[in-house]
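Worked example 2:
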Amino acid sequence: MILNPRGPAVKQIDEDYSSMNSGPLLAEAQRVFSLQQAHRWMVAQSTARERIARLDRLRAAIVTHRDATCEAMWQDFHKPAAEVQLTEIQPTLIELGHVRAHLAEWIQPAPVDSPWVLMGTRSEIRYEPRGVVLIMAPWNYPFGLLLTPLIAAVAAGNCAIVRPSEKVPNTAAVLARIIGDAFEEREVACFTEPGTELAEGLLTLPFDHIFFTGSPRVGRLVLQAASAHLASATLELGGKSPLIVDETADVGKAGERAAWGKYVNAGQTCIAPDYAVVHERVLPGFLDAAKRAIAKFYGRTEEERQASGSFARAIDDAAFERLKTMLADALGTGASVEIGGLVADAERYIAPTILTNVNWESPAMEGEIFGPILPVLTFRSLDEVTDRINRLGKPLALYMFSRSQANIERVLRQTSSGGVAINTVMVHFANPHLPFGGVGESGQGSYHGWYGFRAFSHERSVLMQRRGGLLRMFDPPYTRKTRFLMKVLRRVIG
């Protein structure tokens, strides 16, 4: 039985999940969850200074284990240390510093205006923590996508249980050490044990909020689990993020940035450009620039690129086989290899690849690629492009290279996506002043900076009566005087 102060409804929930046929892992998860429930009100009442002290301990632990984090990710999927630093550790520290600098301001009650009929009152919004939260992180950016939401959860005054992906066991072990160094388990606890039993068991617990980053398929299951306890949820998912290059674009820059964004982390990035749609007049220049960038980043020949220490590998055999099959199917239906195409089973290597002669019905366009394969399509009319993009659902990101503000505004008006970057790719993720999140199939809710603090907070409305107000003039009994005042009110309000 989980002991908590939340009344008979939660007591019944506790009995429901305690009666499940649970093993030692779930029993341990229930123990820690109970511990955090008992401690949550103490954490909720913590001051900005106390929360900043927790964030400072987390920062110190991150710095202490920086080298171990890089080594762990190399062991897990050959991720280069420089990429770990640039795409995981440094953005996380930037986010932490931003939150630390602004937390004392964010935690304060926010006064709001009141209509004149509520004269004599004062209203404000108080940001209270949601309580005990669950954060489930993916494998592709296992460090940043676990610790960044955790920073927001701690800043907002929550207790948290975090679950790294089992696909990166070495990185998960380092994350567990970081969490253990920075927090007591009654504040934040990390569960790294492999297998679906623990993940599914955690979802049966009545968390106050669940933060999940992963696939839309699993996101639906997480949302169902949250609904069982009427918990709120933030879902960061994915989708086919397009890269549009119009006839006015700087094609040299577009090709280079497309190659960088697509092949960082071997394309295993939720906001990587999934495919490019290039105006037919500038296609040759775009392809030349992209191929030059690939040669510059990873080597001039296929052999040099395969031997490069700057290129990651597919995370596991299942991901490798999926990408290998998709590539073969695309080539079998008419696509051509402009560069790349090499696969090596022994090391789960798929070369940085560009495909042309691709149409919208190609196997490469059926779902999110999540790998180092860039299909390139052509267009003549932007209307055709936006219509096709919209048929593929709402992506997590949309990229456009253009010198025409009219074309940019047209695409923004005619499409929907989680975020947008113009004349660059992916770097919007690193701006803590911008909300990061999806829409529709690509997710719900957002975080980073202030938006992360809000995601892990309940905005509680508070109205205080300071002196007698106008509304008391309308108390029963409803006399002739009341009817007269109502006529006056209608004239004023309309």
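Residues 242-437 form a domain with the Aldehyde Dehydrogenase; Chain A, domain 2 fold (CATH 3.40.309.10). The mean pLDDT is 93.
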